[in-house]
Amino acid sequence: WIIALFAILPLIYGVYLCTPEIQAVFFQATKVSRPNVARPNYSHDENLKIPVSQFPLTEQIIHHKGYTVSYNKDKKIPNWVAYELTKQKTQGNIKRNERFIADPVVKGGMANNSDYSRSGFDKGHMAPAADMKWSNEAMKESFYFSNVCPQHPELNRRKWKTLEDKVREWAVADSAILIICGPVTNKKSPVIGKSRVTVPSKFFKVILSLHAIGFIFKNERAIAPLRNYAVSIDSIEQLTGLDFFSSLPDSLENEIESRIDTTLWSI
């Protein structure tokens, strides 16, 4: 039954990207009921992208062309960033922008380049620019300060980048995957710059494809094999207080989020 379960996962994901009418036919035919999760009324395309926070969260949800971000105006960093990456999108040829700018949609405070200057931290992308080569607009958006966090250079340029490269490989292999990533902070997290930009202690990334997997990195030098950072999505939910992929049927969500099988991902 486990094999059958994973066989229908890409079908379920595809259905969530379709119209509500097609979704209704699918769920009636398979006799799978949706979980009754209390959440804002986002469009059906956002069902899988939007994590449900288990605690009050300072956030402004912004839907850009290339990604959706939950921006925290108090911390001056995102709570999380979510986007879909398809095989077609990986084949784009738009040149990297390199110009970090304010997000024009953000209401409230925001970081700027001077906050990061001589801080010892990189401006670490959550939705990477290399995943946005399919659109000039998406590329520009990836350099909004709403999409970056203070990140240790030896994480940003090493295993965080390694995982980004792997994500593109998986998108090519599986045609489409969903990525949600972001920082982990606490009340004692330090800040940088005059804008007092919060420095995360860790970063998470969760990925939904034919299977699901999570990763946790401390905000420090990262050189171990990628599989060493792999964790269950359940453990990331406990750490962050975010409920990922809650639109999936409960039995399916519980199964994929409790598993850690790096062999399925060739890492």
Write up what this structure looks like:
There is one protein chain. By secondary structure, this protein is of the alpha+beta class. It is 28% helix and 22% strand. It is built from eight helices and 13 strands. The strands form four sheets. The chain has a seven-stranded antiparallel beta sheet, sandwiched between helices. A two-stranded antiparallel ribbon has the order 1-13. The protein is globular. Residues 2-6 and 15-45 have low confidence and may be disordered.
* Count of DSSP H/I helices: 8
Q: What integer is the average pLDDT?
A: 86
Please state how the strands of the largest beta sheet are arranged side by side.
2-3-4-7-10-11-12
Uncertain segments are: 2-6, 15-45
Radius of gyration: 18 Å
- What's the total number of strands? 13
The ordered string of helix (H) and strand (E) elements is HHEEEEHEHEHHEEEEEEHEH
- Portion in beta strands: 15-25%
Helix content: 25-40%
Shape, principal axes of CA atoms: globular
Q: What structural category arises from helix and sheet content? A: alpha+beta
Topology record:
Blueprint: H1 2-16, H2 20-30, E1 52-53, E2 60-63, E3 68-72, E4 77-86, H3 113-116, E5 122-125, H4 136-142, E6 148-151, H5 153-156, H6 159-174, E7 176-184, E8 191-192, E9 197-198, E10 202-208, E11 212-218, E12 230-231, H7 233-240, E13 242-243, H8 250-258
Antiparallel strand pairs: 1-13, 2-3, 3-4, 4-7, 5-6, 7-10, 8-9, 10-11, 11-12
